Amino acid sequence: MSFKLVEEAKPRLNRSELAVPGSSPRMFEKAAQSEADVIFLDLEDAVAPDMKEQARRNVIEAINDIDWGEKTLSVRINGLDTPYMYRDLVDVLEQTRDRLDLIMIPKVGTAADVYTVDCIVTQIENAKGRKRRVGFELIIETALGMQNVHEIAAASPRNESLHFGVADYAASVRARTVKIGGVHPDYGVLSDPDAKGERSYFWADPWHYAIARMVVAARANGLRPVDGPFGDIRDEEGYRAAARRAAVLGCEGKWAIHPAQIPLANDIFSPSEAEVERARRILQAMEEAKREGKGAVSLDGRLIDIASIRQAQTLVAKAEQIAKSRSG
Predict the structure, then answer these.
(1) CA 252 to CA 164: how far, in whole Å?
(2) In this structure, are residues 228 and 165 in contact, taking their beta carbons and an 8 Å threshold?
(3) 194/293 same-domain check
(4) Do the beta carbons of residue 210 and residue 154 sit within 8 Å?
(5) How many domains does the chain have?
(6) Whole-model pTM above 0.85?
(7) Domain residues for 289?
(8) Residue 309's pLDDT band (boundaries 50, 70, 90)?
(9) Are residues 287 and 213 in the same domain?
């Protein structure tokens, strides 16, 4: 291990993150009663320019008046390149109580973007005497943001998570697609001819590199990596496939742009009973080895190393978090 220790962000369940337009208050109560781990009330892309001020008022009222239970509550502000961002921060933080957990910052391009928002938020919190420090969710959705993702991840002690915004990222890098997530028929490889001279075409994941790079930046700074939206709400299997690959790459969860996607994300990003049971057995074997003064630990004929133990501890902790959320 390096001498540098990575401080983990505040632990939160982040399997599913439900996007709710700030201009649609009729959806707020349903969101609060849903099974989503995190809800973000959106003031940005989901809100038309002539509805920005009304959406902001809706969100302020919702934060103050709705019972959000134990859910993590976030607000996605408008980008730093718009005339709405500063008022989003000032009004939301000055006119709400301490129920808000997170601010989601879209299209983060440089560490200075995060520093700017941090400065404003800190001044408001100090001036208004807010008792709970608001954390940051950062969306990586431009070529500039991906280039600077490592600096962005380390830009503020408020940072909690990085999110991959596939639609705007595709536009930024001028990818040949108009879909929100998913694969593309032209992104694949052709095998060499077999004995009969026939060749096979294998589709590939065009977002593998971007997500993998974001995950590295997030984990290296103790943040949660979260995969973004999947646009086709009718394609349950497509969503599941995208979520599984994100989970394999190290993501903790995925966005839900429709309530139907919430149970899919919760299922895929929850450890199975078999995984939890094996993790507990690994930890038990470790404790038994300690008591017996053994330097090596084995389970089912396989050597258990330090990495296996850490993975087991993380998995068990997540299972306990999920169980606590269900009981609450």
Answers:
(1) 12
(2) yes
(3) no
(4) no
(5) 2
(6) yes
(7) 274-327
(8) confident
(9) no
